[in-house]
Amino acid sequence: MSDDPEKVWPTGLNLKEAEEVHSYLIDGTRVFGLIALLAHILVAFTTPWLG
Amino acid sequence: MLNYRDFALRKLASIAPRYLPFADVATEDVPLSRLLRLSLFQITVGMALVLLMGILNRVMIVELNVSAALVAGMIALPLLFAPLRALIGFKSDTHVSALGWRRVPYIWKGTMYQFGGFAVMPFALLMLSGYAEAADAPRWIGVSSAALSFLLVGAGLHMVQTVGLALATDLVKEEDQPKVVGLMYVMLLVGMVVSALIYGALLSNYTPGRLIQVIQGTAVVTVALNLFAMWKQEARDRDVARQMELAPKTRFQDAWRNLAARPGMVRLLAVIGLGTFGFGMADVLLEPYGGQVLGLSVGQTTKLTALLAGGTLIGFGIASRTLTRGGIPVRLAIFGALIALPGFASIILSSLIDTAIPFLLGTFAAGLGAGLFGHATLTATIRNAPNNQIGLSLGAWGAVQATCAGVGIALAGIVRDIVVVMPAFAGLPASTPYNMVFIIEMAFLAMAILVAIPLLLRGTRLKAVNARSKPMEAP
Questions:
Q1: Residue A7 pairs with which residues in a beta bridge?
Q2: Which of B113, B146, B371, B381 could crosslink B312 through cysteines, CB 3.0-4.6 Å?
Q3: So what's the architecture of B40-238 in CATH?
Q4: CATH 1.20.1250.20 at B259-463, yes or no
Q5: Does B123 touch chain A (CB under 8 A)?
Q6: What is the pTM of this model?
């Protein structure tokens, strides 16, 4: 593992692996962002807080 | 200066892997504590099932005044997703990942969907009921957002359960699989019973604010438990990752045909469908039956549920023991259905002679039979699964099981509602429609037994052939 040329310091993941972990983070952010947006819109309909 | 930086990085590198969600190595022996931790995902599945099937329909109809037809439609939505379990299982079997992960990405995705659905659901329900200013908003917003939230939760729970079971199967050796199946079933049951009690207590004084708290609290608990469950369960493996990259692409149709061609697989799925349908109808009907027909009080009917669940637990325990010691799953499944048949008969009998004792005995027998049948059929599915298609097999099991249980529960609910709407039923006693359903259940269980018998015969014949051929090979 230590002689892997693509190793990304300091986690020990290589580039592809690190990118995959990162993709989960990005996907999660997108999904949670969309959900939060939808929830805010629905709340705004039931109890409007702007105007 | 440089030394400090080097030192810091070295320290970081040495502690970092502990805080990453990988198992260090794929160890031979998985300790029980790790399996217990993994089985927590079943608790979140149980919570979601209870909330969707049991709690929210009452809240929507009684407190939110949503029409019963709309409620029924919403509750049916997660069922639509159940057949897709086979596809999810297949995708997790053939997943390509640089980390060598197959199951964890799907459990994570399913958890996100569950969380998302729960996060939006309370507001969608309030919109649906026209709470506060929502009465002025267009109706389609409430309907479509509620539908979306139910779909998300349903999709998430089917994903988490299918892939979670596949991961549990991956982790243990073949002779330990019955124990794991038992553990998973027990955790599902515990999740359902405990969360039903908690939801009941929390929602007894309903306010819109309380509804939001309860559902969103469920969302947070779901993410927390599932994260804890899957943490460090699947090893990061570069060899597996390389194999994944090089593996030939298979199509779902081919994989499915391959699975269906295995001897006895389709027949086993038919047995699971028939039996689950039969058992599923009982769950909903026992309580109102006890109340309406036998005149039991609310407290007594709650104890009924405990009796049913206790029987099921004992069934799981017996099945785990027997199958670990080399029992034949199909025989045990037939045995479970055979126990439930006289159980339902004595439930019917109790309405004829108007005493509760045969009813209680019958309830216990139905629970015991359901426990044996559920455990044995899942174990049979796992044993029958090809090594590289465990996800697909469990997906097929889940698709059949969830669809049939859901349809059974829904049909039983419809029958119960018909009873409530027209109590007279042309002068017949109140027990007649219930008894008809119990007879239908018995018919389905009998069919399940009939379909299963050839499986058992072939199994013993194969065993006999193996036993005969072995002594010749041995020397």
A1: A14
A2: B371
A3: Up-down Bundle (1.20)
A4: yes
A5: yes
A6: 0.85
